Amino acid sequence: MIAFHHVRKTFGPVVALDGVSFEIRPGERVAFVGTNGSGKTTLLRALLGLVRIEGSIHVAGVDVAGEPEVALRSIAYIPQIAPPLDAPVGEVLRTHAAIRGTRVEETHARGARLGLDVEACQGKRFRELSGGTKQKLLAAMALASAAPVLVCDEPTANLDGRAREAFFAQLAERGPDGVLILCSHRADEVRKLVRRVIELEGGRVRRDGEIEPSVESPDAWLETPSAVRNGRQLVRTS
Fold first, then answer.
1. What is the tally of structural domains in the chain?
2. Mean pLDDT of 49-58
3. Could you give the maximum distance between any two Cα atoms of the chain, in Å?
4. What is the CATH classification number for the domain harbouring 199?
5. Per-position DSSP letters for 11-45, written without gaps between them
6. Structural domain range at position 86
7. Lowest mean pLDDT, pick from 61-65, 206-210, 232-236
8. Contact 46, 25 (CB under 8 A)
9. C-alpha angle with apex 105: 90 to 157, nearest 5 degrees?
10. Which pLDDT value is given to residue 212?
11. Residues 51, 29, 205, 19: is their CA dihedral positive or negative?
């Protein structure tokens, strides 16, 4: 479904990505983790075609750099920071539905399950919404899309507990071939949503493997460089 081949990105003298290569197969749920500056945000932006890179990224066999309008049809995205859109919510929803080939009513239904009254927001400008409302609306739009790849960057950062559980429930309903890519600092969220974790350090893949199902919590793996606590290995590397 997704293939990164020798992806490299520099910002002046800073090497943000240094020869990153791996594949994500249909049906996989993967988390990108790493400390600030590890390269995970740049890798996410590269996948979305937002930065130019050396190497290549293919989604469903299509080169993101060469045919972004085709490759990105396969991806829905929930950003960590909402875009500062000045347009009314109703206009944003209609535009999104037209581009994605969905119905606005589907976004309304997804939002309602997150505790959001989309109808009440229609006339408000998107940028004037509260942080939690923006997050619910963006999540509802992405979930309403039929795109096989869902990319989530800290998707529940501004959600209350009830909305988080409703969000998890909707993720669980995605088809067996759907791909989930998650960037999150919440260990419980990573544990709940994914099985495979790719850790970046210094722009390189330091570790790529599955969280062992016998481990009660992945906190130690996410927090300690050695991935070992009390002598137990927390991730099986490939």
1. 1
2. 96
3. 57
4. 3.40.50.300
5. ETTEEEEEEEEEEE-TT-EEEEE--TTSSHHHHHH
6. 2-237
7. 232-236
8. no
9. 70
10. 63
11. negative
